[in-house]
Amino acid sequence: MTSTPLTRSEAKDLTRRRLMRAAFAILDEEGEAGLTTVKVARAAGIAQSSFYVHFKDRQELLRALGDRVGERLRGAMREARRRAREAPSDRERHRETFRIPLEAICRHPALFRLGLRARHDPSSPFHEFAVESAAAYRAHLVADLASFGFPAGRESDRRRLEMVADGIGALSDAMAIGHIDGRYPDLEEVVDVLVAFSYGYLRLLGKDAPASPAGPSLPRDPVRNDPRTPPIDPTIGVRHEPGGGGRRDGA
User: Fold this and answer.
1) If you compute the radius of gyration of the chain from its CA atoms, what whole number of angstroms results?
2) DSSP 210
């Protein structure tokens, strides 16, 4: 059985995807300094001149990588938040909303560090792109929080949602750096801490929201079954010792 030849458009798309896969592999293994158009073309198995058919330069390639990761991450996070919303008593679904971005960062740490630096460096050629990416993440989260029923009608409501979104992003970035650098080696412990912080801002946003079921569904306290008072994770403050045991900090 003979295969159908690829159209010109399909072949071009296939080559572009090969270049991006090669770039991700080089970036993950060698970091930003190791990423050159020559290496990418060689790893993708194409002529150096063909690289410029798909990307103007290295900078455009990096922006394409950032777009790919950002688009996939925002889609995965929106789906995770939707699933958590549907089952407010399911603690694991709530944890997954924080685990997903951390795992995405850990898959491509060099790309994450590049974006983080560029966001705070106006002289960087990626500054505008990094700022736009952060704004897209913020707008995405604000829209999700508003769709879940948190107040967003007044300017002050919207501003509060934006501050919460910025806070989540900044905290997640800091914790991700700590994990990548080895200061916080246990990813699940990092998720524990992010979840604990989330209960604070959910209380802040939920106090002015309509009562359930019309209002937002927050994680329920398994003892009081109260959607307005999210539970405190009992694992917070527990050090997991080798062998499965644990002890509370200060004990």
Assistant:
1) 22
2) P
Residue found by looking up tokens 């403050």 in the block = 237
Reported as a single tens digit per residue, the pLDDT across 53-94 is 999 999 999 999 999 999 999 999 999 999 998 998 899 999
Which two structure tokens, joined as six digits, stand for 119?
Answer: 């966001």
For 178, left (φ over 0), alpha (ψ -120 to 50), or beta? alpha
pTM of the model: 0.77
Mean pLDDT over the full length of the chain: 83
Give the burial string for 134-165 (b: 16+ CB within 10 Å, else e). beebbebbbebbbebbbbbeeeebeebbbebb
| Ramachandran region, residue 182 (left: φ > 0; alpha: ψ -120 to 50; beta: rest) | left
Q: Is 171 exposed, middle or buried (0-12, 13-18, 19+ CB in 10 A)?
A: middle
pLDDT above 50: residue 217? no
With a pLDDT cut of 90, the percent of the chain lying above it is 67
**CB of 177 within 8 A of CB of 205?**
no
